[in-house]
Amino acid sequence: YQSKELKKNIFELATAYLASGLNPEKCIFFVQSQVEAHAELAWLLGTITPIGELQRMTQYKEKVKKYPKDINAGLVNYPVLMAADILLYQTDLVPVGKDQQQHVELARTIARKFNQKFGQTFKEPKVLLPKTGAKIMSLQNPKKKMSKTDDPRGCLELFEEPEEIKKKIMAAVTDPGKAIKYSDSKPGISNLLTIYSLFSGKSIKELERNFKGKGYEEFKKSLTKLLINSLEPFRRKRKELLSREVYVKEILNAGAKRAKTIAQLTLEEAKKKMGLI
What we know:
The protein has two domains: 3-129 and 244-274, HUPs (Rossmann fold), CATH 3.40.50.620; 152-240, Tyrosyl-Transfer RNA Synthetase (Orthogonal Bundle), CATH 1.10.240. Helices cover 58% and strands 2% of the residues. It has helices spanning 3-19, 37-46, 51-55, 58-66, 73-87, 101-118, 162-170, 187-200, 204-210, 216-242, 245-274; strands at residues 93-95, 126-128.
């Protein structure tokens, strides 16, 4: 990454989360690097985590295959840092996509191993996986996960302009035949049905009935309209937040202060159990 861009990216990501509905009065919202306990606990947990387990992580293997010359210790140990992020706050449930489920399972394994070795310290977190939409696929290649880095044309962004939404949905890959039906043999239309279901609140079966006998073009136009209307409040809120940098930073600083109090208690308990001074 470009270090000069990092501060800007952090601010923009914070506005994205706030615009998406996170309420700082109901949650503790902060930047990980503001709370030193994350890095310290990750180091301690790394001492009981076999390197082989980290190298078996699917995302690690994908990165090794894709960027063989850019592999470093930070990438290998990243799942341990994620475990620290979770365990520091005695987390019960972790909402993730299907691609991150393996990392939460590793956090459970690390927590269990620590508790067995040093005494009960951490809760074993459970995965909170949505029944629909646990993994959204690319609009251009419905057999691959939606990702901006792989193909921006296949990635639908929350704050996309209406014309760009229309362009991407109308150009989304579909399947042979005209039936609007969810099926493993129809990954393209199945992916679009999943997106429609998530934004409309309607079941996929209900959508199949509603669009029975209708073509892909009519379905895509309906989905486009739904997405534009649904995402408009997010675009509007984010535009407002981007002009209120001081306000956003105040939220992050207040969240970090609250997070430090909780994290430090857990870290001190873990160090005490390990016999550290």
